[in-house]
Amino acid sequence: MTQIGFIGLGNMGGPMAENLLKHNFSVAVFDLVPAAVEKLCNAGATSASTAAEAVAHADIIISMLPAGAHVRSLYLDDTGAGQHIKPGALVIDCSTIDAESARAVGEGLQARGVRFIDAPVSGGVGGAQAGTLTFIVGGNVTDLDTARPVLEAMGKNIFHAGDCGAGQVAKICNNMLLSILMAGTAEALQLGIDNGLDPKVLSEIMLQSSGRNWTLELYNPCPDVMPNVPSSNQYQGGFMVDLMNKDLMLATQCAAQSNSAVPMGSQAQSLYKLHSKQGNGKLDFSSIFKMFSAK
Ligand code: NAD
Fold first, then answer.
1. Which CATH number does 169-293 carry?
2. Residue 295's pLDDT is what?
3. Nearest CA to 128 among 6, 41, 210, 220?
């Protein structure tokens, strides 16, 4: 049976590991927070008292950590868990981190005979719980094929973006575009409202016209236009402004390294930063609408 080591059992990693257990994988888990480990052990996981212990016997290691520094430290530090992974094992890092860190970790592990793919996710906490995440993978096809049964236990769609690091690049391109679409949609809706239009009517018109986009289809930012979305629930749940800010920071850093012009992404980053500074960091990212409506 495939032995899995899972590191990082937070809002995303916890439910992802639970779905592996539901698919009868044998999972050893570790997190710095003991309560998170205990919760998974109650669901059938094996408790590890260190990250090294969680990875030592694993065929596949999955990490779901906050940022690049955590992932680098886990796998590359001289005294880190990376030194305890057996050669031939496969590391799947699902955290959203900078592509440079993903490539450095991939190279560092490969030098020890350990395989690596980056597999950041889209779909949020709801997708992690429901097992419907989208995985955006960077790495070689053989390693992706090894990972596939494990990823399928946690998600619905699996994309191969390219070589190591490409999963991270594709993910931040998507999220940068999403932030621009959300801010632009909010801006257009408020322009209509300020000029006497009903936002429901305007949304329907734009949805059937050339302004159509994902936010109008599924995630309208104006309160009470759509049921069951964060904007109709005081912007609770969903994808936090501060997480969007993290992804926009990764996108603009990536653009600086590749000398790419991202004027729209930079604008969106400034808007979301200001929105967070005004106390909205924990709200869903569609709350950017409040910037235009000033309510
Ligand atoms: P989280 O803060 O809820 O969880 C992170 C977990 O990692 C925590 O439980 C923390 O204790 C643990 N951790 C940190 N350092 C560790 C270490 N050295 N060893 C073991 N455990 C350690 O974060 P999250 O919301 O689960 O997000 C995780 C990753 O997924 C991030 O990279 C985030 O950008 C990405 N992501 C999040 C969402 C979302 O909606 N929350 C959506 C897509 C992607």
1. 1.10.1040.10
2. 59
3. 6
